[in-house]
Every structure is written in structure tokens, then in C-alpha cells.
Amino acid sequence: MNLRPAPIHFAWYERLAMRVLFALVLERHIPASLSHLTITAPNGVARIIDVRFLLEPSVFAVGRSLLLAALVLYVLRVGWSIALPYITLFSIGVGTIINSQGAISHYLQIVSLVLLAQTAAHFYSLSGKGKAAASEGLSREDLLVNWSQQTIAAVYLVSALTKLIHTKGAWILQSPLIAVQIIKTTEQDYYDRLHPAGLQAGLRVAEWITLHPLLVMLIMTGGLLLELSAPLLLLGRGWAACYGLALVAFHETVGRVMQLHFTYNEYLIWIYLVNVPFWVWLGWRRMRERFKRPDSAA
Amino acid sequence: MNWKEAAVVWARSRWKPMFIFTAACLLIGEQYPFSNFPMYSSFGSSTYYLYLGDGMGAPVASLETIGMSTPTLKKVFSTEMRKERERLQIRAGELTPEQKQLVGERLLARLKNSPAARQRGGPKPEILRLYEVNISVRGGRFEKQTELVAESR
Lengths: 298, 153
What we know:
The structure holds 2 protein chains of 2 kinds.
Chain A: H1 12-29, H2 57-76, H3 80-98, H4 109-126, H5 130-135, H6 140-166, H7 171-174, H8 178-193, H9 199-211, H10 213-228, H11 237-258, H12 263-274, H13 276-290, H14 294-297
Helix pairs in contact in A: 1-2, 1-12, 2-3, 3-4, 4-6, 6-10, 6-12, 8-9, 11-12
Chain B: H1 3-12, H2 16-28, E1 46-54, E2 59-60, H3 62-65, H4 70-87, H5 97-112, H6 115-120, E3 128-138, E4 141-152
């Protein structure tokens, strides 16, 4: 088996779909306003730079309008040297403020990291070193998509390594204790809005886990291995699609059982890993070849 | 493999961005946009969460009152507890119930008047209480203990 990431040449319709869908995700990941937030525990760049100016509604409105303009440029593939750094800085600025309330959330990092990778890939492709990629026939946009995939792989690899580091490798053995966490997240979900709908289901799952620890360890091993082997998704289109679907199933399961939703992770997985347009096109081509009338072939 | 050969292998590697992002996330840790993604990276036999109640002890929907979810409420409280431990130079051990109550009262006062509460929250009860629920599992059975941390008028 060749363990070098396969350079993939993406067709125009794949790249267009990726740009449009990622732009929609980027528009959505920035809230309409930040004026409801305060910076009580500066995080990231907020520890060095005062980013409170973004809390000012008028400043934020201008920033958001500029974001929309930059997203249009991004989709049209025009002025990326300005648009990409701007989108990246704005995303990091907003994410920094959201994470500077004394509570770190983990649903936005993947978007800012992919943007950071795309900006780096763009400037790398403009540099002399980037010509090496061009010599393999990779376009600038192919490189951007490849680096985005590598960033997604890195996010899952980091998550797996942290589990092993924090537990000195004993994460699997500890995993049946997730039952306590499920009770916690279920009841937290209830106290958010006092909707009792999911309470009994959460309790039942937690009780089931305490009764079947070995089976739970087996399931959790699958999840850990999926994260740990995420670099394999770089081996080609098929690997990326299979890993993408497995990761979506993983997130959906975690979402249903623990009320923890990683919507932006799923969006990026669908866009950059599963890549539906390619498989639709491939399926359509295969169908056409199969049902092609013999006389028309002649 | 000497360092020169290693440098050549590195230069030719197509996995560089993934290695760089992996190393950056692990080394920099929780500094946005980087993160080592520590959620549920270890499990203990006990945990806790916080919820809000009114003067009669009845639960109050946190999103609809202070515009903040209960997981965020726990994280914010935990950060304030850490800050208080640092301020009091407590290196090991926990805060006393009285110290914890002071942290809770300050936090409730701040959350009741926060921009999030004003813009996203609804009417607030005259007395707002902060409760802590400790959950543990022993011998396959769950145990829960609820205690009042602080209240704000």
C-alpha cells in the first residue's frame, strides 16, 4: 500500500461546490452580533491584542459587511491574497472573543484552522516552493483543498493523542465511566430550557453503559481508532469519502447520546472529505456507460 | 537516519501541513484557534454541573434567564474558581464553602446584569440561586447530591 497522500486533481464543478459551500459555512459561523458578549478571561490573541473593538456593534457590522464582500471574492476566485487573510483574521477574532468568556468551546476551531491552512496554502503556492506542487500538476486550489483535508485530519489526530496523553494510554479502560458524563450532559440539556423530553432516554443510555462495560469499551475503541487513523483519509478520494462518512456517523452518535453537537465539523467533512458532487458525477458516468446502447458505442 | 536525511525526508513529505497543525495544537493548547481538544479526554467516577434556581428552589431555565447554557455556566464558574485560587495563592486543595459562595455570588450578580442576560434572557426571579449537582457511580449505581452554592437578590 502506498502511504503517500495522493495528489488529487479536483474538477471545476467540485472546486466550485467546495467554494460555495465553504463560503456559506463561513457566513454562518460568524454571529449577527457580539454585543451580548464580554471578555472576562482573554484567550488566544486577546491576551496580546485588545480585541474589544469587535464588541462595538457599528464596528462589527462593518467587519461583517466586509466579510460578505470577501466571501464573494472567495467564491469568484478573485483577490484571494486580500480576501483569504481578511476572512481568516475575522474568523479568528470572532472565535477568540467567543472563547474569552471564561468558557472554551470547541465547535469553531476547525473552521478557523481550515481558513488558516487555506491562507497558508495560497501564499505557499505563490512562493517559489509552491512550484513543486505545480510540477505535480496540482493547481493552487487543489493545494488549498489538500491542506484543508490535512487540517481536518490533524484535528482528529490531536483529539485522539490528547486522550492517550491525558490518561497515559488508559482511555479505553476508563471509557465506561462516560455513563456519568452522559447523565451530566443530559441534565445540563434539561436545565437549559427545562424541556424534559430527553431526560429518560439519557438515563437509560447511562444505565445500559454500566451494565455493558466491555461492549462500551469495544465501541469506544472504534471511535478512538477512527480519530487516531484519521491521516489515512489523505490517501485518496475513496479513503476520504469512507472516513468522512464514518466521522459523520461518529458525530451523529455523540450528538444523540451526549447532546454534544459539532455541526461545523460535519459541514467541513461533507464539503472536503465526502465531496458528494464527485460521487454523483462518477455514479452518473458509470450508469451512462452501463446503459449505453451497443449500437451507439459502435 | 541522520539529521540531513531526516531533513530531506521532511522536505519531500506531503504530510507537512498535518504534522505542523498537529504539533501546534498539542504544544499551544487552548489558545484560539488552536486547541488540544481535551473534551472527554479522561473520565473519572464523578463529575458535577451547575444549574439555576429561584428563591423557592425551583429550577430556572438558564438560557431563557441569563442567556447562557449550563455547560458554559459550569466552565465560567470553574474559571472563576481557578482565578480565586490563584488570587488566594491556594496551590493544592479546594476553596472553602464560604470562599466558593463568594465566587458564586459575584458570578450570579455579574450574569444577571450581563449583556447576554439583557439581550437574550427573559424575566429573572427576584432571588436567583446557583446549585451544584455532584454525580458519581459506585458499584454500577448512580448517586447524586445537590447543594446550594450561592444566591443573589
